[in-house]
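Q: What would this chain look like folded?
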Amino acid sequence: MIEYVENHGKAIVINKAMATIKSDVVALSDISALISFDAMMLAAAHFSAPDVGVVNSRYCLLKPGEGEQQYWDYQNKIRSNEAVIGSSLGAHGALYFIRRELFSPFEFDTINDDFILPMKIVEKGYRAVVQEEIRAVELEPTNTQQDFRRRLRIGAGNCQQLFRLSGCLNPRLGGVAFTFASSKGLRVVMPFLMMTALIGSALLAPENLFFAVAAGGQATVYGLVMLWSLTGYQPKSKLCRALAYLVAGHTANAIGTLRYITGLEKGRWQRV
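A: My prediction, written as structure tokens:
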């Protein structure tokens, strides 16, 4: 075990650790994750295919919070579908595997290392696949405040990776280019598009009933989610919980993007 007393950032630690590894395949995992006992064997079978550079696990929550289970079920389904039309995008830091020879050192301020690393490999023409039978179970419970801070960081990372992985938008990558643009590209701009839609509808509302209803509906949903967040209220309806989680996610994404653009996000993990 190598101990790092000073916080140099996860990206730098991975760079140093990878320089000491000689095995053909490397597993990267979080300390808070419980992984399948046969994970190594299942992953190794995929690497027999020469075009496979990354193997992803299925991320699970031991004690999911409100809206989290629906969100991660949705994300896991998307990742599997991405692999069908080209390659899954990124990985979850709880557990994934790569070919050591394909590793590219991180820049010191890398935020979403578990997305940048796999996608640098995909950018080279290799595939990232998903092995559903490999489970990575998150053991550490996350409260609402911790979840929002985590999503702020992810939002900043989404903006960073859009710039640093612009090569993934190259049409020669086929399905990968489409999924990267529609998923990760739109994720960065979506909160700002939503606000533009609200402002536009509000301006047109006096002259058009449709836009009046649209502006009123959007403002009502945002207002309710803000009220629930401030009061700590947890709605009982599944639809309301999903809406609250979705709006909170877009809010964190917008703030995270602005933090990255203004240089406030330093790219280091902090204990919360």
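The mean pLDDT is 88.
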